[in-house]
Amino acid sequence: MDVKIIPALLSLAMFILFACPVPMGIMTAGNGAGMLISAVLTAVFVFWKQFRGLISSLWEKTAGKVLICGCSAVLCFCVILAVVLSISMIKQINDPPPNENTTLVVLGCKVKDGRPSFMLKRRLEAAYGYLSEHESVCVVVSGGKGDDELISEAECMKQYLTEKGISAERIFMEDKSTTTKENLMFSKNIIENNHLPDTITLVTDGYHQKRAEMLAEKQGIHPYNISGYTSWYIIPTYWVREWFGLVYYKLFG
């Protein structure tokens, strides 16, 4: 068996993994970039002889050498950057508060037909688990109403938690925000105005915790983190998307 079949199959499997969320209506820079890179790698390994011949012919020319070296340098930089960002993201996935003197802030996500989307439900499950075990802790549910949503994300989250048995008196709604930055800024105001504990614990998806923490720190918040469960088949898509988000924030945030 040609040994190049194995990396070709692995690249094809990676393409399928990034494509899995597309039928669910999830198309982001993450799976777009993932599918593109996977498709290119698959083509390279399938047509390895032609690819090697192209590289050899380019290497015979000065401009070709410059092009190959430049592309190799960019590729190495991107790989190193992805590794560094991933390590930083992993470190922030789960950092629960040391005691009950905290206020949870659940960051909003899509609401469908008045009910939590799959991803928002996972965040709420994580919040519910913590609130059930720590009955003195209050929570700010944060998220406004999009044009395609029947109710605000905050109202949807409050309904979910009260239906699960969390007292409405422990739930504070922030229903004006449209971005993570606004989630944090408006939630901080609610916490201050209601004299809630100013030690904040963010509840969101694990892949999102690093960027959320960076945004929080710009608001003067040094949060703890509790992450909702993310299905394995969408982690690559959103993980790669966060690479773009983190780089964008570092450059323009």
Give your account of this protein's structure.
The structure is a single chain. This protein has 253 residues and is an alpha/beta fold. The chain folds into 2 domains: 87 residues, no CATH class; 129 residues, Rossmann fold, CATH 3.40.50.620. Helix content is 57%, strand content 11%. It has 9 helices and 7 strands; from the N terminus they run H-H-H-H-E-E-E-H-E-H-E-H-E-H-E-H. A 5-stranded parallel β-sheet has the order 5-4-1-6-7. A two-stranded antiparallel sheet has the order 2-3. Helix 1 packs antiparallel against helix 2. It is elongated. The mean pLDDT is 94.
Summed up, what is this model?
With 253 residues, this protein is of the alpha/beta class. It contains nine helices and seven strands; from the N terminus they run ααααβββαβαβαβαβα.
